[in-house]
Structures are given as C-alpha cells and as structure tokens.
C-alpha cells in the first residue's frame, strides 16, 4: 500500500518508515524541507513538501505524527500557539488532501492513524486511566483535544480514523532517554519532585508495531492509548534506569526548582497519568516490551 506519513523524519517516524518499507509498502513522507531530511530516511521514501504534492499518487493510508516538540521551549503564549498550530495545521493538510481527492473523483485512503498524546488526560494523580477516563482541563489536554478534533472531519468522508494517545517513547538516540541518560550515567540522576506521579511509557518498536496494527485491523477506530501495559511512577522509573546503568540515583530535583526553571511546562515533569492501553490489549495487540526493565535492558 501507499502510506503517507507526516512527521516521518522524526524519532518515531524514521523507524516507522523502515518497518513499512521492509513489509513491502510504498512510503510517502511530507516534509517542509525534503532536502534536509533526505539523509535521515531510507532512499526508497518519496519525500515531498506538502500532502497535496501527492495528488498524482494518492495514498491509501495516512499516518499523522507531525508536531513541534512540546518540551523544546518554555510555554509562552506564542509558544503554546506554535505547539497547537504545528499539530492542527499538519492534520488539516491531510483533510484538505482528502477533500481534493474526493472532488476529483479519486479514491480516498482507507484509514488515518492520527497522533495524540498522554497529555490528553492531563494530571490524573494515581487514578488508573483508560480510553474512557474524563480528562483534567489544562493546557496539555486542550492541545491534544484540538489535535484530535482536527482529524475528526475525515470520518464524514468515510475514512476510518484511529487516534493514538502516545506515552513517553523509549529507545536509544532520542525520545525521553536522550536528555535523561547523560546525568544518570554520571550518577547524578534522581526523581522529580516527590516521584509519585506516573510516567506512561512505550518502547519505540512497540509504538511502531501498534501503528501498523491499527493500520491493518480494519475494524478498529476511535481513541487508543499508545503506552505499555505496566506504567510506573517517576520514582520507579528513576530506580529502574539507575539499576540498569549500575549507578546511584540519589539527587532528586525539588519541585520548586522545576517550577522556577520551567514555569507551567514543569507540569510535564511533575504530573502524569496511570495510563493503560485497554483498547489495544482488548484488540489482541501484543507488546514485545511490556515492562520497563525489559525495555531498558534491550535499549541499554
């Protein structure tokens, strides 16, 4: 199948492109700067600067992963708007592509897998969270809610929509571990605040497998939690990571320092949700790395 990906040059997208090509699919990637990302992607990828540029070879599957890094900059009013627009605009570009295909009498994609994040639920304390849990209203929830809402119009065109609320992605060379590993390797790691908040996580290979699973299972639609079945608290994460590295983790970072340094963005480090992949599990998806120790052992 022809699979069009936004965010294909990102940490998850690169692995997804490789897997899809290995499985015999044609991979189309949207990037604002094709020449800059070409070296990060397999040569077989067809990279163009907009979704509309693929009108001559309409995709059969849409995978929407594009979005500015939520932790790249302090959350000023303008940065919040940038975070929202980067997600909503890329999603709307795919909706526009489908509208144009429909107007031309061309075949529409059969499915769209659209990214979202664990932030949809906001701070949930120690309450177990599945896809039916009511969200806590805060910026990260509103960001994800707008991202998800932008994808909804595609359903009216008869395209199956699956939304994946992604946890912290773990693998070497990027994602959550990229910033955590250096201090932990030096024995300078520690919990954030009390460490009691949950950190839903997923190995990158399991996330890629879940995306392909949703792509292939024609009866699955709606929201799915994209995280491993055994989330841990920040304190447990810290302890497990330090153990894998054979280092101590005795330097906790007080909550007041994180709030002073990051402002509202410190919520990412001090709050979370005990998010479980209930619908993926019910659908028969099997995690290769269901527990954190297995995931970190494979990565490190």
TrEMBL record:
Residue span, DUF1731 domain: 253-299
Residues covered by the NAD-dependent epimerase/dehydratase domain: 3-217
Classification via InterPro entries: DUF1731, Epimerase_deHydtase, NAD(P)-bd_dom_sf, SDR39U1
Family indicated by similarity: Belongs to the NAD(P)-dependent epimerase/dehydratase family. SDR39U1 subfamily.
Alphabetized NCBIfam families for the sequence: yfcH (TIGR01777)
Record-given protein name: TIGR01777 family protein
């Amino acid at each position: 199948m022809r699979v069009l990906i936004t965010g294909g040059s990102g940490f998850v997208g690169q692995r997804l492109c490789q897997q899809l090509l290995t499985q015999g699919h044609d991979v189309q990637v949207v990037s604002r700067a094709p020449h800059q990302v070409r070296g990060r992607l397999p040569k077989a990828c067809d990279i163009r600067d907009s979704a509309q540029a693929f009108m001559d070879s309409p995709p059969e599957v849409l995978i929407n992963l594009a979005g500015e890094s939520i932790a790249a900059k302090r959350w000023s009013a303008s940065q919040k708007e940038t975070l929202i627009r980067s997600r909503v605009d890329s999603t709307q570009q795919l909706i526009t592509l489908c509208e144009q295909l429909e107007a031309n009498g061309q075949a529409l994609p059969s499915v769209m897998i659209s990214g979202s994040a664990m932030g949809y639920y906001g701070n949930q304390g120690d309450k177990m969270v599945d896809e039916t849990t009511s969200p806590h209203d805060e910026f990260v929830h509103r960001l994800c809610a707008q991202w998800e809402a932008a994808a909804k119009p595609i359903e009216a065109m008869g395209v199956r929509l699956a939304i994946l609320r992604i946890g912290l992605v773990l693998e070497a060379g990027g994602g959550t571990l990229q910033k955590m590993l250096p201090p932990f390797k030096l024995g300078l790691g520690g919990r954030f605040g009390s460490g009691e908040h949950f950190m839903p996580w997923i190995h990158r290979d399991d996330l890629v497998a879940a995306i392909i699973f949703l792509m292939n299972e024609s009866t699955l639609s709606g929201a799915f939690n994209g995280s491993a079945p055994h989330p841990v608290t920040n304190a447990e994460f810290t302890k497990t990571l330090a153990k894998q590295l054979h280092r101590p983790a005795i330097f906790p970072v007080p909550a007041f320092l994180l709030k002073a340094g990051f402002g509202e963005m410190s919520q990412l480090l001090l709050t979370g949700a005990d998010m479980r992949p209930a619908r993926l599990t019910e659908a028969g998806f099997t995690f290769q790395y269901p527990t954190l120790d297995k995931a970190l052992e494979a990565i490190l």
